[in-house]
Amino acid sequence: MRHPTTQPANRFERRRAMTRQALIGAARQVMAEQGNTDVSIQPIADRADVGFGTFYNHFETKDALFDAAVADALEEYGQLLDAATAEIEDTAETFAAGVRLTLQLAASHPEITGILRFRGLQHVHSGTGLGPQALRDLEAGKASGRFDIKDTQVTLGAVGGIVLALVQLGATNDLEATAGEGTAELVLRMLGLPAEEVTTGHGDSALPASDRPRTGHR
Predict the structure, then answer these.
(1) pLDDT value of position 178
(2) pTM (2 decimals)?
């Protein structure tokens, strides 16, 4: 679960922020485990270890909580992408690394994967997590001539659909170890890179060492 990057100034605000984050964390767990939001407020409050009435000090409705939980998970996902690709200068390789990372999340960050499967497609064009990083890279690639695309928003929708569909497939089927690399190559070809440039051999984990799955852990 993502932790706030800035801490409130006083004790009351810190406790309030911690309670809000506990509710968001509980909602994230529910979505990842159940694949839906079909749960009453009381089990969420129990999981967050807060009182029922406390819920309404932070969220007006259950839907508002789940929207915040999705945004939180996607923001964490976006931070993972940025951390994993911070040292990569080539826009195309940055994009490919992001595709590979997304498929690795099932082992290293199953909660985020569950939320991506359930709500990811609805948030491809949102202002947090999944959308902004990809759109930024698409626009940079287009501006530099690296990508041969016309409409970055349409391209983002197409790429997001491909990647999220493979995330869903990976959750229900045993994919080959090369699935991530193959998908990255497919996406780069779709973005206009020539076939002779899109080659295999770049399949090293995009995850930071601390976030990589252990050997034998799927």
Answers:
(1) 87
(2) 0.76
